[in-house]
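Q: Could you fold this chain for me?
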Amino acid sequence: MQKDFHHAITYILSRWAGFGHQDAEIIAYAAQYVDDSTYMGTVRFDEGQMYLRTASAHDILDLRNADKAKDVRTWVPFHFLPGNCGVPRDQHCGKSFKERLICLANSPVAQDMLAECLRRKDSPHALHRLGITMHVYADTWAHQNFAGLDAEVNDASDLEVLKPSGYIDLMDELATKLPTKLGHAQVSSCPDLPYIEWEYSNWQGDKQPPIDNASRLADAADKMLSFMKQWRSSGQQPATQGLTTQERQFLINKFKEIQHKDADKRHAAWLEMIKLGTVPGISGVPLNYAKDGQNSWKFLALGTNNEQTIISNLLGFDPAFMASNWKLFHDALQFHRLYVLNELLPSYGICAA
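A: Sure. Below is the predicted structure, expressed as structure tokens.
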């Protein structure tokens, strides 16, 4: 999934779940920032304070993908949550380790991740943790049947876009021929585009049924909304009240109508609908997302977006940093990664990092 879903749709679902505008902004920003937080290392301040940040993403051609440890620590906990073959922790699926790492929609592993997010809802970074969790949860639909490591289980062939016709261009053809077997690289951006229908053959050569991304993303939205309602009710409300029929149809219609390959253009279309008040149940309100620049969480927390400045200089320390969205996001990011890699996956017998 890309910015249109992780930011705009997460915001809409947050509002439908009953969150106010400001809280929904935080949840949605955090959900998208998982894809944009690409720097790690220690931030140092002029009075001796230090803060260690971590990265939750890097580009598919980033040299860090050659480092299997960094590779797994990024892709597995944040983008390709292992599905353990769809079986609970007390059962054995009889598959190989790499097959158990294949991501599956709404798996028992994903359900346990949601439960942990719910348990931590009183922490200072609870909304940021919720946004991160919603990113990972949504990706279990978009990234299903692929794994967050460079392995043969990600081999794909016979890629074809059924609707709209003529979609695949030269860049997509090149992507399918890349030597990397990381994630869904061999099917290019097909899993992330809401408006296409496509098919392919998996690593075992089995032709997969046609995939309608609009319906797949609507399924993700339904479960996300159900969980966010449960989160707001402190877990007292059963997680069964997702999208209404009207809300689901609205999303599917818009997913299919907004046919821009450029994620920024699709994102802008959703922001315009939110601003104009044409999203059912949400009064018109301006919504923006800035990963860089003076309105970004990083700039507001550190006073700069320049990475060379951050890496090479001592920054002025403002006590407000401690409660900044940027710091709280990175706090939540580190708690999420620690939980997934050191507690959740080991409870399933999966030793990934």
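A (continued): The beta strands are 41-44, 50-53, 157-163, 197-201, 211-212.
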